[in-house]
What we know:
Elements: E1 2-10, H1 16-33, E2 36-42, E3 45-52, H2 54-66, E4 70-80, E5 93-96, H3 106-125, H4 128-135, E6 146-157, H5 160-166, H6 169-189, E7 193-198, E8 201-207, H7 211-231, E9 243-258, E10 263-268, H8 270-285, E11 289-292, H9 293-296, E12 305-312, E13 319-325, H10 336-353
Parallel strand pairs: 2-5, 9-11
Antiparallel strand pairs: 1-3, 1-4, 2-3, 6-8, 6-9, 7-8, 9-10, 11-13, 12-13
Helix pairs in contact: 6-7
Amino acid sequence: MKRLTYISNFSRSLTKKDIESIGKISQTNNCRQGITGVLLSCSGIFFQILEGEEESIDSLYEKILKDDRHNRILCLKSELNISARRFPDWSMEVIVLDENNDILLQPIKILLQTLGESQAILATYTQSGVLEAIGRGINPLTLVPRYTEKIIFFADIISFTSITEKVQVTEVVDFLNQFFTICTKAIAARGGEVTKFIGDCVMAYFDGDQADNALQASLDILSDLEMLRNQAPANSPLRVLYVGIGLSKGTVLEGNIGSQTKKEYTVIGDAVNVASRIEALTRQLNRFLVFSDSVRLGLSDRWRSVRLGDFHAKGREEIVEVYSIDDLLTFQKSDFQKLKQEIRQHLELISSQTPELV
C-alpha cells in the first residue's frame, strides 16, 4: 500500500459547510476505492493524509492536483510498501480546526499555519521544475541525470556595473527585481524554465523543439523592457534598463549538480557556454537579441532570420554562425558605444540629483 501526505492552500474562500461537503463526498468515493485517511482544515489550509493501494492513491492525487479548490499543492511525504494503515476506520475524517478552541489543538493550528508559510517561502526560492516534482510526490534528489536537447537562454543587463556605482542600494535591488520579474514571467508563459540568476544575468532553458517559444519569450522581454523604460520617471535608472539576449541549442546534461549539502537542478554543457558567449556578442553586433544557427534551424517560417556573420566564441575553437531577426525590438538605437554613453549620461544626471548620505 501507499501513504501520501500533502498540504495546499484554498484557492478561494470555503465555508465550514463547503469543507464538510467535501468530506462527505470523499467518504463515499474513498470507501468504494478502499482509501482511508484524514483531512484537516485551518486558516485557508488543507492538510491531508491518504492511504490505500498505490494505483488508487495516485489516481486520487491526480484529481486533487487538478481540483480548482486547491492552490500551491505540496506533497510532504510519499511512503511506499506500507504494511498497516494508520486510519483503518476512517474513509475520510474531516476536522475543521478554525472554530475549535480546544487548547490541545492550538499547537496543531500553529503547525499548519507555519507549514503554509514555509510552503510559500519554498515556492519563492525553488525552481518550478523541482517544485512540480515535489508536488507530485517525487523526491527531486532521486531524479536521474540525463542528456537532453535544450535551447539555452542568457540575458544580461548592459552596463550594470556602471549602474551599481551611481545609484543607491535600494534602487539597485528594485532595478534587478523588475528585470528578473519581466524575464521570469515571459519565460514561464512560453513554456521555459528559469534555472538561475547569476548576478545581473538570467539563465533559462526551453525544450529543444521550442525554438519559436524561446524567440517569442525573448521578444516579449524586449517589448516589456521598452515599455518599462518609457513609463519610468525621468530620473529613474529604469530608463536605461537595456539587456542583451543570447540563444543556443544543443545537447546538455540535465540533473542535480552540486555537493553533498548543496545542490541545484540545472543544465550544463557546450550549449550553455555558447549561449553565454553569444549573448556577449550583442554589444559587438549592436543587436539586443542574437542566436546560433542551431536555433535558427528550429524556427518556423513566421520568422525572418538575418545572418550577422561567423564568430569565434570566447573559449571555443569552432566558429559560431550568429543570427538575429528583422524586428525593431532587436535593433539598438545606435551603436553600442553610443548606447553606453547614453546610459552613462543618464546615470550622471541621477547622481547629481541624489542628495549625499550623511
